[in-house]
Design a protein that fits this description.
- Helices cover about 55% and strands about 0% of the residues.
- With about 325 residues, it is an all-alpha fold.
- It has a domain of about 120 residues.
- The longest helix is centred in the last third of the chain and has 21 residues.
- The N and C termini lie far apart (about 90 Å).
- About 45% of the residues are buried.
Length: about 325
């Protein structure tokens, strides 16, 4: 039997071949090489400079795949990911900001760049920046002013994520969230109320402000002159769309718990305030009178939220007795 041709030795290191393929004249080969390097994760760190060059490729798919591969390398690629936040291609910027978000507190050196990215023209990049800043936890305190500004913009997804990020930063952001309970935009007031609830019992200082939001907005104390509550049939949800990009995130809709029609922000902010008081547990026991009133006299969704809050507060009080 004729002997078969001897097999050529196969290198244990795939990097040289993959790096060489990144220089191919065939875009499909460059794309495969970038994706294969991405599968290697941190093992491909020696190809980092080559992948950075690939983010300038003439093919958009190669650029994005190279950015994703860099993002998979972890904290070793932190300087490169920070640089990519300024890339001209929004898909590259998205990969960079999402990778920084996965780094958590390790992404703190990128905080200034992430604050700038909150104003990115691409809504997904801006939203990813808010999430990345929130993932810094209390290490993101310096981002409070930028997140506060983002929370008051016209992108409702960014507003919600910025509020969430402030709650993740924790007590240093509490005074900012309390201030936003008095914002002229009811949507912002509602998101601030939600974020206070996410802080939990440590946000006890917000209890009188959440109670005031319920009391004055619904039953017409002095503040009603500044923030009138219209009859339901006269209300409409303000248009807050800021994203004409067809593949952007769809803004979430606020709906009643029973599946009724979407609540206008004037109503949903009150529901959020009631639910957040419940999340504060026994720390919110001084708000029980206004919650009882809301449970009796409020509109249906508010009545349900107030009753739920009362149950949580009383249960927490009983558990601590």
């Amino acid at each position: 039997m004729a002997s078969s041709s001897p097999r050529l030795p196969v290198s244990d290191d795939p990097l040289p071949e993959l790096v060489a393929a990144l220089q191919s004249g065939d875009a499909a080969q460059r794309l495969r090489a970038a994706r294969d390097l991405g599968r290697l994760g941190p093992l491909a760190s020696e190809a980092l400079s080559d992948l950075m060059r690939a983010t300038q490729d003439s093919d958009s798919r190669v650029r994005e795949a190279a950015a994703a591969a860099i993002g998979g390398m972890g904290s070793v690629a932190l300087p490169e990911l920070t640089t990519l936040l300024r890339h001209a291609d929004k898909y590259v910027r998205r990969q960079a900001v999402w990778a920084l978000g996965r780094l958590g507190r390790a992404a703190q050196p990128a905080l200034p760049a992430l604050c700038t990215a909150l104003k990115d023209s691409d809504p997904r990049t801006a939203s990813g920046a808010a999430q990345a800043l929130g993932n810094l936890g209390d290490a993101g305190t310096a981002a409070i002013p930028a997140l506060t500004e983002a929370m008051c913009g016209t992108n409702i997804v960014l507003c919600r994520l910025a509020a969430k990020a402030l709650s993740q930063i924790g007590l240093p952001a509490l005074s900012t969230l309390i201030a936003h309970l008095y914002h002229h935009d009811p949507f912002v007031r509602g998101e601030a109320a939600l974020a206070v609830g996410w802080l939990g019992p440590t946000a006890q200082a917000a209890v009188p402000h959440l109670a005031r939001l319920l009391r004055e907005a619904e039953w017409g104390n002095a503040a009603e002159a500044n923030h009138p509550v219209l009859p339901l049939e006269q209300r409409r949800t303000p248009l807050r769309a800021s994203d004409s990009d067809a593949d952007s995130a769809t803004p979430p809709q606020l709906t009643c718990e029973s599946g009724e029609e979407a609540l206008p922000p004037e109503y949903s902010s009150l529901v959020h305030a009631a639910l957040s008081l419940g999340r504060l547990g026994r720390s919110a026991r001084t708000a029980l009178p206004v919650l009882h009133t809301a449970a009796e006299r409020g509109f249906p969704a508010l009545r349900r939220a107030a009753r739920q809050a009362i149950e949580h507060i009383l249960a927490d009080c009983n558990d601590s007795a």
